[in-house]
Amino acid sequence: MTSDNNTKEKQPMTIHHRLKPRSLLARITLYFALFLVLFIFAIWLAIPPVANWYLTDFYKQQNRLFSADDISVNFFPPSVHLEKVRVSHEESTELELNRLDIQVSVAPLFKKTAYISDARIDGLFVYASQSQNAWNIAGLNIPLNSSNESNNTQDSGSEISKEEHTQPQKPSEQQAQENPSDGSMAWRLVVPKFEFNNSQFKIHNLLNDNITDSIAIKYLQVEDLQNQGLDVSGNVALDLNFNESNLALKSNIQYLQFLADIKLNSLDINAEIKDFLHFLPKEYRPLSGNINTSLQGNIKQVGATEFEVSLPSVDMNLNKLSADVPNAVAQLDTVNVRLTNSNISNTSNGELSATGILSTSLEKLDATFEDNKVQTQSFNLEVNQFALNKEGNAISLTVPSIELKNNNLQYENAKTKVSNNSVHLQLGNLVATIAEDKTLKLSTSLSSELNQSSLALDQLHLNNDRMAFDIEQLEVVQSDDKLNAKTAQTKVSNTHFILTESENVLASVGQVDLDLPTLRYSGTAYAATLAHLRLADIELSNLKDAPPLTVLDSLTIQDVNAVETHAEIKSIDLKGLRAHLLLDENRQLINLATLPAANDASDQNSTAHESTTNSSSANNRTNANNSEKLDNSTEPNKNTDLNNDETNSNKFALRLHEFSLSDNSYIQILDKSVEPDLDSTIDIDQLTATHIDSKDPNSVTHVLLKARNGKYSTIDLNADIQPFANKLTMQSKLAIRETELPPYSPYIAQALGYRIDSGQMDMDLDLNADKGQLEGNTHLVFREFDLGGRQESSKVVQTGAMPLNIAVGVLKDGQGNIELDIPLEGDVDNPEFKWTGFLMLPIKQALYKASASYLMQTFVPYANVISIAQIAGEQILKIRVEPLEFSFQQGQILPEQHSYLDQLNALMTDKPDSQVKACGIAVLGDLGESDELTIAEPEQQNTYLNGLANERANALKDYLVGKGIASNRIFVCAPQIDRDDDAKPRVALKF
């Protein structure tokens, strides 16, 4: 029993000894765990004061004050909490944090996931300043001396990274780089929500005019943020201010497996330009304005080089821009750019496409660039649903419609000024392509309207009230330096076009209407069809103090077909032509406006003055020189044997079927280079020319003219002429009726040798030309035709010579008419041929021969009164009417004068149609030796002499009337005084 008991007693002891090591281990573990807990607890308790003490001491060394209401670090779960943290320097805050909370979940860490369940920063303020050698950020000085090497390293690293990024790798290769070969998975970051609110960063730059920038973050919220390697996804909301500029963003970002999907729910930027000026050079800082941008869209990357951008709405506004930078000063009210429903995509094979609707507007621009100034009230551009595609090197653009509007545009520089009240331009169905071979093709329809346009070049001004043009189906192809173009229809309408110089109108057109059905151009070849062109209310050269040179009611051109070698026109019709040809003393057009000379104005003026002086001295307003200027000499054709086809092969040919001029047209000629001034008007009732063909030298043009000169004179021309033959060939009939001749006397004075005092002319001219040889006949009828004498002396009275102009009177029939038939012939190729001499010399010879023969036989019985002598063959017939001489102071007829007066009475009796003009003449010898007269005033002397001269003329008339001559056949001239020393008292007679 004892042994059993002993055995029983020993067993518990064995068990006790077996359990003792385990109990010790448990105790050790328990103690270690307790120690660890106590240690961590101690650390947890120590961290806030230690951190506070350390940071206080650290910032104290930086001469800064640090304070914090709460610094907390938790381990279960891991989290950090900061509250009311502040760093200050001399009562200025450099760092302030209202609150910071960061909490990490522990369990996901075992799955290599950092799950930040709480992340919040509120009320962060950081002040940073830059000096020449260091940055001070939140009270911490960061030297810049050692930054160069790091910058170089960073630059080289960035260049390497850029090269790596510029060579995109396949996703599998990049994943292989990111995921090691051991198959370990990259860490994953998950943040359900991150908030960064009410924070501000101030950056003071001592190197840049002590500028301080402020970056204020109202809120930055990131939700559902997930990141693993390069994969990122999440929602971002940001509201940030930079100085006074604001950026607001709401977006969803997904970048998974190298495929990006970024949704921009909204992006709003409101920027003040002045907030960014200090980043620019000083000379570009005088800028101000506001930029406002609003954006919505989606950006997708569907491959390494494939992407899609969808932008439902993009609005960009620039407001109140003011700039005063080198070479430019500008003021701008607003610029608005709106892009809607736009899409941009790029495929893996490089195909690029872009579509959308673009709207642009501009208000109140005033800009000056050097000496160029631009102003406009408004500008609007609408591009509807454009589509741009690029495949390889081929590019295509299609736009259903483009509309441009502009109001009050002005451009000005030192020499040019352009203004336009409004422009409205529309392009429809625009298609433009650039092929692989660089061939450009363009097709569109165009409609435009311009109102109140003007262009000024120095003193030259061009104004246009309204211009509108429409082009349908315009097609342009440019290839190999050749341009091909064609249109289906072109219409132009223009209202009141006017070109002026100072106060003079050079040209003006009231209305232009053009209808161009087709136009084709290919290199140097072109083809055009003009259905209708009408210009109305045309004025040319309308000077301030003179009537316009030309006025035309309308010019109409119908049915034109033109190619590069020739053109064919159905008709040209002019209505209401009013031409005023005003010639000055030098036979220069008074009312011809000229363009102002750009250079050498003084030289031109001096040359013009010299020319005028020489012209004045050469043209003493004499009949001979004036007539000479009308001569038109024709040089002989030296190439008479040239083939017509060779001559015209390189010339542009024109064929006109009909030309007409009608509707109250006239030409006024005022010539001040002759005495008296010519003022004549030719009214054109009808002028037509048919079948004009410059290509065919043998073509015959028919010309028909019906005109009037004054109320009663008529002109009728009917001619067939070959205008493009090498030598003049024509058949013509000209009939002129009741033309008053005196106005044209100065022009024919040289040919006839005498002035025309009076007379009417009827002429029937049949003139033919065969290869330059003229042949024809002129039938002339002169009514009341009187030729006057020449002024060959400065004496008041020329007596004693009776020229041919008096003798011509004897040719008149009982009705006072002269009728002549004159043959005409000549060679226009003769260098001495002159049209004036060709027409007038035969008339002169016919008149001379007939009158000379008659006078020689008629006036011999009256030798005491009339003497006749022929001088220089047929050139001068000297007919002298002897005066009735008186003695000094004699006023009445004496018996010794009866013989002369009886022959004069017989002459007038034999010639009952003759009339005589008696001009009494007194001389200085009539004053005698009377003291009363010799000492009298000149006015009294003239009164006496004029009375005596008048008494002598009346005495002659009384004598003839007493002999039975009718008093109405004798005319008494105004008394005259001859002051020559050898002058004799007399009565001069003129028949």
UniProtKB/TrEMBL annotation:
Keywords: Membrane, Transmembrane, Transmembrane helix. InterPro entries: DUF748 (IPR008023), OmpA-like_sf (IPR036737). The keyword Lipid biosynthesis does not apply. It comes from the Bacteria. Residues 146-182, 599-646 are annotated as: Disordered. The keyword Transmembrane applies. Residues 605-627 have a biased composition (Low complexity). Residues 146-159, 168-182, 633-646 have a biased composition (Polar residues). Pfam families: DUF748. The chain crosses the membrane at residues 28-47. This is Uncharacterized protein.
